[in-house]
Known about the structure:
- This protein is of the alpha/beta class.
- Helices cover 39% and strands 16% of the residues.
- The chain has helices at residues 50-70, 86-99, 113-118, 130-133, 143-146, 171-176, 188-198, 217-229, 247-260, 275-284, 296-301, 314-317, 355-365, 368-375, 385-391, 396-405, 418-433, 438-452, and strands spanning 20-23, 35-41, 75-81, 105-109, 122-123, 150-151, 154-155, 157-159, 165-170, 205-208, 242-243, 288-294, 318-321, 323-324, 337-341, 344-349, 409-411, 458-459.
- Strands 4, 5, 8 and 16 form a 4-stranded antiparallel sheet that branches. Strands 10-12-9-13 form a 4-stranded mixed sheet, sandwiched between helices.
- A hairpin with a 2-residue loop joins strand 6 and strand 7.
- Helix 8 packs across helix 9, helix 9 crosses helix 17 and helix 17 runs antiparallel to helix 18 (438-452).
- The chain is globular and about 75 Å long.
- Residues 1-31 have low confidence and may be disordered.
Amino acid sequence: MRVQTNRLVALTGALALALTVTACGSNGDGDGDTVHLTVGMNAIAGGKNTTEAEWVEEWVIPEFEAAQAARGVSVEVTFEPSGVDDEQYKSRLALDLQSGTGPDIYTLDGIWLGEFAQAGYVRPLADTGQAATDWDGWAQIPDAVQRLATFDGERYGVPAGTDGRVLFYHRRLFAEAGLPADWQPTSWAEILAAGEALARLDGVTPIQLNAGTAMGEATTMQGVLPLLAGTGESIHTEDGRWTGASPGLERVLGLYADVYQAGLGDPRLQQEAQGRDKSFEEFARGEIGILLESDYFWRGVVNPVTGVAPMADRDETVGYALVPAAEPGAGPAGADFVSTSGGNVRVLSSATEHPELAWELLAFMHSAEAVTAFVGDEPRITARSDVNERVLGDDPMLTFVNERVLPVTSYRPALEVYPRVSVLLQEATAAVVGGTDPARAAADYRDGLEEVVDGDDITP
């Protein structure tokens, strides 16, 4: 697929890209004042992340070079593709940066930011000059989304894309159960009440709430973290401590018990390697009533044309609602609704020799024109509200995420130890699904947490 000048394919929140720009110096190749920039990405035309590779080759490079030439700046940008596993790319990138041969600009999964910043590989944007601080693009990126690119109170980059979690529900099943077609629960109790009504239907699993280690990070992102936010807590506090067996976590695990120990969810799906995919298929067949998922479910799973579990009647049959706090006002700062998001962030290397020019390229890539081109013909959530308003107008669900979900969302802690904490949370939910008392599961989680982080860094 070729990228058009005014269209472009958006980032997928689940993909960890790696965009790099290496400035070789004005005289590095003996051609006067030309600055040579190398763009490397974990993407390759015809392979992994092919549309991102095409974007760099067919839009970013010619447009940026032309824009700089118009200002009297001679820049040559070369694209170096890659197409390896994300973790392999991350390791290679870290080794390059450690040896001092790494890129000037690169893209990280949001949860890698703290790790790279603590290693000294990332330059705070404030260090590049006033242009980064005064960039007009910040006004178009919601504060909640900007937090994706912030670590320890310092802005390190620009969010490259994001997503949001919502409750999806099956309108036909809701009608059969006597539930409203336009459903918006305001508490966990209302979710459970809807589940109990759906339980009266034959062959229907009322609620799918991702649990266990087989579901992996989906359990944490589409389960524990948004629910924990709904109690007013977060897994990592502002004072740098990890949440242990807190009242909020016990409430979250209690909700898992209400779902699975009361027969409102299918515990077998949580134990199967392909359980999440099976839950998608069951929803599409009208066998699951409520499912907590990201907007990927709408655009990538039940999409009538390109979905892995396509629903021809998606727009009429699939409803979506905000995830409520445990009770009205119980969320962060008294919020009634909550969500969690993922995404990528583009950053500058702390070793770049051309921070101002590198910032110009970074800002150029996140301009309204570039991001609009990036979306292309497949609407997706971008970090820019002004672009979303234009490109999502025909998609009510993605517009809903942009307007209602992103303002109340939160992000995972960008720390190296987070993946290990996430596994502990997955294990705690698995225990509850298997019948363990929520308080016991929370206590076991805290014991495991002490083996992963310093006990003094845990509360309570």
